[in-house]
Amino acid sequence: MSGGAELLAELKRRVGSCIDEAEAKLHSLSRDLWSRPELAYEETRAHDRLAELFSLEDGWTVDRHFKLDTAFRASWVAAGRGPGGPGGQGDVVNVGFLCEYDALPAIGHACGHNLIAEAGAAAALGLKAALEKNQDRAPVRAQVTVLGTPAEEAGGGKIDMLREGAFEGLDVVFMAHPSKEDAVYLPCVAEHDVTIKYHGKASHAAAYPWEGINALDAAVLCYNNLSVLRQQMKPDWRVHGIIKHGGVKPNIIPAYTELEYYLRTPSRNELPVLKDKAESCFRSAAWQLAARCK
Question: Cβ(216)–Cβ(254) under 8 Å?
Answer without folding.
Answer: yes
